[in-house]
Structure formats: structure tokens, C-alpha cells
Amino acid sequence: MRIATTYEAGNIFQHFGRTEQFKVYDIADGKVQAAAVIGTNGKGHGALADVLKEEGVDTLICGGIGEGAQNMLAAAGIKLYGGVSGSADEAIAALLAGRLLYNPDVACGHHGDHDHHGCHNGQEEHGCSGEHH
Fold it and tell me: pTM of whole model > 0.85?
């Protein structure tokens, strides 16, 4: 199993389409066996699903992500856990322990000046409607 997170300075980067790095974790027997930070080589948005697929990633943890990118990940067979913030390493540990807080309806695209802070804390009740100005 290979899990990736959008990545910046130890934390989950909050805009999938603009991430410059992923941290990729190799998982075996429910534990992290190895981890490495990879660059996106300047690719963005839709091309990022291809980057992950080429790296053999089957699961992605990220912050905000638009519907188009979600569809591309699904087409690539990559499972998505969106709306997550904080430490990338802690998010991986939480996922492996079955206690990752995420938003299955994440719809943030970070366009316009809509306040997105409630979208990334893993709590659905804060509800990001996905409507952007």
C-alpha cells in the first residue's frame, strides 16, 4: 500500500491543485515502512493524479480539493481522504489506526475570497458548501 499526502513543511498542504510536493508512505503490516518527499515537477491540478498514479499511490490524504481533481483521482483508482489538516505524519498514523478525521464531501477549490478554514478541520458540521465567489 502507498499513501500520499499533499505536503509543505511537515504539514498537509491545503490546496491539492497547487501542491508542489507529496509525502509518499510505503505501508506494510499496518505500519510505515518507508517515507519520501517527492516533487510535482511543476505539474498542477489534473496532472497531479497522473503523478500519484506513476508513483504507485493508492490513497491520498489532502486538504481542499476541487471536484474535477476528485474525479481524476477516482478514475486513477486512488482513494481520497480530503478536508484534513495538520501534521502529515500524524494523519498517516491516524489513518492506520482507523481514527482519521476527514470530510467525505470536501469540495473546496480555494477560488475567490471565500473563507475555507472550516473546510480543513475534518469536521463535517462546519460544512464548506463549495460555493465560491
Answer: no
